[in-house]
Amino acid sequence: VSFGFEDVSEEEKVSRVKGVFRSVASKYDLMNDLMSGGIHRIWKSNTIARLNPQPGELLLDCAGGTGDIARAFVAKAEEVRQRRGGEPAMAIVTDINDDMLLAGLEQRGDDGLIWACADATKLPFPDKCVDVVTISFGIRNVVDIPAALREFRRVLKPGGRFACLEFSHMATKEMQAAYDAYSFNVIPQLGKIVTGDKDSYQYLVESIRRFPKQEKFADMIKEAGFSKVSFTNYTGGVAALHTGWAI
Ligand code: SAM
User: Fold this and answer.
1) Alpha-carbon torsion 211, 215, 217, 223, what sign?
2) Is the ipTM of this complex over 0.90?
3) How far is the CA of 95 from the centre of ligand 1 (A)?
4) Cα-Cα-Cα-Cα dihedral sign, residues 29, 191, 25, 58
5) What stretches of the chain show up as alpha helix (H) in DSSP?
6) With contact defined as beta carbons under 8 Å apart, do 120 and 92 qualify?
């Protein structure tokens, strides 16, 4: 099955991705919980624990959608600040799609975060200005992934850290077959029932299959100039967390 992404221009691809998320924005959080049985919350919480947020830090969360990672980062840094003092941490949530940002703002409030509509491949920020860059379930939707990785490297201060949480590939063929059966059959049907839009969820499932395997994606992060790149599989590789440092 193909969503027709192969034979179209880069501009058209970006516009189609925007259309997918415009269509699902208002039900986005609900669908995440339904599709993953809530497990995405554990993956995100592990990601935040690995980042070890500190008071006074500035996070840039790209393709941040409704703001899960930014909210959790700032809350965790605040817990540390209550014990040890310091300045509050801050976070900027950026997304190419204003409907996703607005869904987050309207349904869950702004939580004191900075919200900005921006393409991950053309970040409107100066060099070396943030301590941490995150992108969670967003990179596979970016049409020019190497360009986005270079932008993440550019805006990080020396010593800054990068974390990318994304759906990935299972460790064994048998597990992959079981996961494919679930994702190709159940997720588009669930999307149809909850959002009325089966095609967007068909696209999401296909985009997971097309995304590079863990090792290949780690190489892409290294090519963008990151050091000490590594990855951790979650739930047998359903998702993977890649991390790297700007040194
Ligand atoms: N980070 C959130 C999370 O973990 O729940 C949202 C992830 S959602 C699956 C993917 C997001 O990527 C969408 O909000 C979409 O608009 C955004 N996106 C796609 N292409 C993008 C790009 N080139 N630059 C910035 N955001 C992009």
Assistant:
1) negative
2) yes
3) 6
4) positive
5) 10-24, 28-36, 39-51, 68-84, 98-108, 145-155, 173-195, 198-210, 214-223
6) no
Token pair in block for residue 199: 């095609």
What kind of fold does domain 10-246 have according to CATH?
A: Rossmann fold (3.40.50)
Which amino acid does the sequence have at 138? Answer: G
Torsion of CA 151, 159, 48, 233, to 10 degrees: 80
Amino acid at 67: G
Distances in Å between the Cα of 14 and the Cα atoms of 59, 119, 124 are 25, 10, 18
pLDDT in tens, 95-133: 999 999 999 999 999 999 999 999 999 999 999 999 999
In 3D space, the residue among 107, 87, 89, 83 whose CA is nearest the CA of residue 29 turns out to be 107
Domain residue ranges of the chain, discontinuous segments joined by +: 10-246
Distance, CA 194 to ligand 1 centroid (Å)? Answer: 20
pTM of the model: 0.94
Cα distance between residue 101 and residue 113, in whole Å = 11
Ligand 1: residues with CB < 6 A are 17, 21, 62-65, 68, 95-97, 100, 119-121, 136-138, 141-142
How far does Cα 149 stand from its chain's mean position?
A: 13
Which tokens in the block code for residue 227? 């050091």
